Amino acid sequence: MIKYIILGAVVVFAIVIIVTSYVKSPPDKAFIISGLRKNPKILIGRAGLKLPFIERKDELLIKQISIDIKTGDYVPTLDFIGVNIDAVAKVKIRTDPEGIQLAMKNFLNMKEHQIMEALVDSLQGNMREIIGTISLKDLCNDRKSFGDQVQEKAQVDMNRLGIEIISCNIQHVEDQNDLIIALGQDNMAAIQKNASIAKANADRDVAIAQAQAQKEANDARVLAETEIAIKQNDLSIKKAELKTVEDTKKAEADAAYQIQQEAQRKTIEVTKAQADIAKQEQEITRKQKEASVKEQELDAQIRKQADADKYRQQQMAEVELFKRQKDAEAQKYEFEKDAEAKRIKAEADRYAMEQEALAIKAKAEAEAAAIQAKGEAEAAAIQAKAEAEAAGIDKKAEAMKKYGEAAIVEMLCKMYPEVARAIAEPLGKIDKITMYGDGNTARLTEDVTKSFKQTIDGLSDSMGIDLNTVVSNFLGSKGEAELPSDFKEVTES
User: Fold this and answer.
1) How far apart are CA 77 and CA 80, in angstroms?
2) pTM for this predicted structure
3) I want to staple 87 with a disulfide (CB 3.0 to 4.6 A). Which of 45, 69, 228, 280 is the partner?
């Protein structure tokens, strides 16, 4: 019994030792087991055993840590411009054998904020050193390069502590005299200028492209409408042709259907008549057999009576058969006459349509001939009128020559005032005339005189008489006192 108690106590003790010595490290922490071994055991994301009272467990934070790096005050750049920079560095403890050994010596059992406080001074110092080697413009234009330089320089110091710098990003840059804003305004003006030029060029390209697109669209629309019109015209023609073919085929089909229907009807009638004849023949055969049976049973007198009945039935059957054959032939003849009448009617309709088309054509030709004859008559009338007018003018000229100079001058005395009045009448209706330059009044008078002279010359040409020569000769032969009063008025006008 004591043996079992001791064994149970040993088992329970072993279980307690195992339970209390079991440890499991999370992925973001490293458990350092030290005590019995010369080199401590490191557990990262796995389980292990720690002997109670003999070994100890320490923790090392290996997750990523963000550290805010600030210069604190203005630090001069390469071109002696004070800047204040705010950056963020992401670091973590190295997990390689050498790095974790160094980290255990410096950051064992430290919290996250303690590690940040231990590293921020070194990172700020390295950033200050890099600021002094770069100009303000380069710092603003290439922040990534600046962050890479800070990371590269600070990594040398971090390697001694077992720290790895994952990244270093510049968050904010501020200069002491607001020179960054001035550089931005200069760049902004250049950017605005380039943007305005680019916009103008883009607007021009858009306008050109729109005009070209509109031209191409209009050309395409015109071409499409033309093709549509051509296709529609072809379609109309094709429809008309197909309609003609359809009507022709339909008429032929109707005629063929009627012919076939009549043929079927005739076949049915003939078949029916043949069936009736066959039925009669069967009836006669049956009666012959009956008569033959009775003939054996009856005597000679009865047989004679049967023969007489048989003969009468035969004669009646032949009469009925002959009658049915004649009826069938009569119906066939009527069907053939009906079909011939329909064919003749169709030919008559076709001939009537052809005659109607010829009549329409003849009417059109007659109308065209009438229009042509009317045009020729009107042309002949115009020509005759023109010839009559010309002959009248010639006769008038001859009569005027016979009148003599005195009569012509007398006529001119009556005509000249009317001509002068007609030429000057438009000027009398003008309210006011404003003339510029020298000699315009004389030119106006000269234009009126030329108009009068041109009118007289036109009359001379139409009458075939030189009126100016007639008047000159008349004036040379007469004195002023002898001139007609009307001519004096013309001269004064």
Assistant:
1) 5
2) 0.37
3) 69
Instruction: Taking the CA atoms of 211, 214, 217 and 223 in sequence, report the sign of the dihedral they define.
Output: negative
Could you tell me which residues come within 8 angstroms of residue 452 by beta carbon, excluding any fewer than 6 positions away?
419, 420, 423
Q: Quick: pLDDT tens for 124-133.
A: 988 998 988 8
Closest Cα partner for 30 from 55, 51, 58? Answer: 58
For the cut 90, the answer to whether the pLDDT of residue 293 exceeds it is no
CA distances from 363 to 91, 207, 216 (A): 111, 61, 50
Strand segments (E) across 332-480:
none
DSSP 160: H
Contact of 258 with 335, CB cutoff 8 Å = no
DSSP string, 80-143: S-EEEEEEEEEEEE--SHHHHHHHHHHHTT--HHHHHHHHHHHHHHHHHHHHTTS-HHHHHH-H
Beta carbons within 8 Å of 289's beta carbon, 6+ residues apart: none
CA distance 157 to 119: 10
User: Half-sphere exposure (CA, 13 Å, Cβ side) for 200?
Assistant: 5
